[in-house]
Amino acid sequence: MKCDPNNNTCKGNCPCKEYCPLGSALKLIGGKWKIPILCALSQDGTTRYNELLRKLRGITNTMLASSLKELEADGLIYRRQYLEMPVRVEYEITDFCTDLLPILAQLAQWGVQTHKSK
Question: How many domains does the chain fold into?
């Protein structure tokens, strides 16, 4: 199967270097921590930074901060900072991310089926 550069679709292995929709999607959610962050926010709703840090066992402060910045820059989460002392920051998923959640649920179901078959 080949990539069709005329309509920018990725079919099977995508040799097209200019554009691959799957590659674009994976850039947004790829990495070890972005999906767990999105799942935590989708399950718990609006969440403060330190609460996220506690929920995501094993994530470093630096990794959480950089992942949140990337997710915000890509439009998957909102960051709300309150003018209080100490500063209070909350995160929540965007409508753009809400569209992604059923896809992640399907991927999780596939993971469960794959795990059972091994």
Answer: 2
